Amino acid sequence: MKELTATAKYSVGTLTYTKMGLVALFSWLLWGDFCFQLMETVMPTLLPLTLHRAAASGQAIGIIMTTIPNIMNAILCPIISYKSDRYRSKWGRRIPFLLWPTPCIAILLIVTGHSTSIGTWLHGLIESNLHLSGLSPALVILGVTSFCMVGFQFFNMFVGSVYYYLFADVVPEHFMGRFMAAFRLVSFGAALVWNYYLIGLADAHMAALFVGIGIVYFVGFTLMCMRVKEGKYPPPPPPGHGGGMVGSSLTYFHECFRNRYYIWFFVGTTLIELAVCARPFSIIFYNDTLKIPLETFGKVMFWSSAASMLLTLPAGFLSDRWHPLRLVILGSAGTAVVTILSFFFVNDARSMLIFQLAAVPPSVLYMVAVLPMYAALLPKERYGQMCSAQAMLRSVAMIFGGFAAGLLMDLTGSYRYFFVWTAACIAVSLIPLFLVYIGWKRYGGAENYVPPSVDIARGGAAVASENVVGKSS
Known about the structure:
19 helices; 473 residues; Growth Hormone, Chain: A; disordered N terminus
């Protein structure tokens, strides 16, 4: 029995690893994540500054950075996730969705880095050939930058929708909490590199940063896709309402939204992520309002990331032992408190550092536990589909949230109100999350939890799940 238990620890689906095989798997996944996190950091961090310098309003920044991407996500993520759950190939069901968009993302990063030069050149070309003297260079630069952003988001939608599902398909569930702690360590490591070494170069070397990170992402993420192998999957479940677009859509919505327990889960996690709508305004507040140089801003974020790294592994072990749902609720409550205090007391680089460090413990609890929470609560055989339902609801909310957050900045005349937006969204999320906690206890709690069925044919019966867990982006 001990031998069987030991073997089960290193297995997921049809995949079985030795200890060294597990180390190799973790190494490739974490290397890919390092490249992915750098790619995911450069666009939301630097693009708001580019837009702001092109005279874009707060509403325009909110629409470009949040509303448009989330319109795309609301439409594409459910389709991509539904298809990925049911896709079968010699490469698996996740890797193909990660591999083919990668060169397109890299190219668009490189072009984005040169958007100011391209916009200036294009403005001169338009003015000399079409004689549109009223067209300002800033408007053309804004158009070029927006085009790059939309293209980038389109291709990144495939990667972001499927990337986190891969972990569930290849990482044994017994190690998921610790893997996610290592995953977060790598994310913080990428943040350290970005904040300490790279962001300070943005003023003088913006284009070079985009080009360098585009190349690193293309090479590193492609290598990960080539080295990580998926196992064999059972045949995909048939659509409960028949095939075709209409039948598949009916099956999707029926399975995802008929149970109130999952609806509360979707609402709670959506409200937390709605706080992200204010993120593009944070760097403008620190750099433009408080006049904190980008280099100093980077150093503050460096120490925040360093502190986060120290707490990540203990939080991962705590997630495995105490259950991630509890940690998500605790971390969210703590983050809301620190954020609203920041609204009143952050006035310079010193106070920014103090409150960034104060936010580290609750934010680490949340970040380490949130993906394992998805894995622990959602039905595994429809994991991608259920995650995409949350992503769709989140995106619909953020379509309006991006506009509303930008409008709040414009109406108040202060980017400081990004703190208020963030704290309010997280605080309200605690209500549906508490209802999820009550349902979790009713369905078995930490010892005997069985997710309620989403299978149309089986009604309310417990699902017989394949060994698949993960999360959508």
